[in-house]
Amino acid sequence: MLTAARLGASALAGLLLAAGAAAPALADTPAPSPVTPPAALYGKGDPSYDGVWRQSLALTALASAKVVPAASTVSWLTGQQCADGGWPSFRADAAAACDPKTEDSNATAVAVQALTALGGHQDAVAKGVAWLKANQNADGTWSYNPGGPGGADSTGLAVSALTAAHADPAQVAKAGRSALDGLAGFQLGCAAPAAERGGYVYQPGADAKANGLATGPAALAAAGGALPVATTDRVDAAPAALACPAGGAAAGVPAAQSAEAASAHLVGQLNANGQHLMLTTPGAEPAPDLNATSWAVLSLVRAGHPHQAAGAADWLAGNGYAWAAKGKNGTDPAAAAALLLVAQAAKLDPYNFGGTNLVQLLVDSGPKPLSLPSAAASAASANPDGTAAPGSGITDGEDNGGFSPIWLVGTGLVVGIGGGLMITPTLWGRLAAAAAGTPAKDDGQQ
Asked: Which parts of the chain span the membrane according to its record (predicted)?
């Protein structure tokens, strides 16, 4: 069994994204030989567990930045789709038939959102949506791989994919339970302690607690959001916490209050932790979680609370460079894409995000794009200190210690965990369970 002492940053980055790698992948068995990434793929790391995930996020983020990617990057993603419409985490031989058991709802959900954002791929999108509908659980949820109990993150991602593809989640149902009904089953209501209310758990249970990695994607979906998240000029009051009358019956969260309750929970957690969320690695001290913080920003902006997301967005600007650019294999395209999506949503300058040109950082991690935004368009950025065009200003670590000029938040700088990908919460739950010596209880990984 994997021990806590062996849970380093590189293990975290790989195992948290391991599609279908339940207990056997966490045991003391020889590691498989690394797979060399195809030339069309963003990033230099082994794509076995995150190829489709990171490619989809990279393409979504670049589309939001008006970058036209190389045709090979898009054809690689569409070529990974299985005949039945789903996507696995990665398949080295796209000509070989897929094993349906290894198809991945998270990869499918982000691929659908990427191809929708790019436009012109309606057939692939429609097949992906059909796969999601066919593999919905009877309680309205989705599991990571087909056939297992649903997870909040997988269900949230699937709901966002349906939203992006204009397939109403309220009308996508199994056994009378819609996708929104399934999502609601993970949200904590008045029966939970006050600090937990509105948050989402990995899976329901008597001792389940709200978790940032589960809450972010679920909250974005509950707010009717999908990737990329559109910016907004709204500056609403702080989100209203779930109202729980004293002595009242412990009920679930009403659908109309779901996004507000989730937003209130996230704001409370961000305020309590210096404008970032925390990740607790089994056997290690808690560490800042840049991935969960990114999802929190996106969900808060979508829910109409950009003002409450501003501090976390600025914290990411001051602390995200190492996460995105200094991983084991250089630039982590999923992390760089996460920050670029945050910058776009929070109306920060993606060409000078805490000193880093996120657009160029992500562009340089893959094949040369077909076209970039014009220098004139980039120069129109609201930040006069921006680099004005792709091709400059990537910076190095010591140049990236300050906050962006858009927002000034009095919070201390904390070193982020290294090697973190824009991971999905379900697999963190599996890793934690394995490290504790308990069976993994999420998304069908037996």
From this structure: none
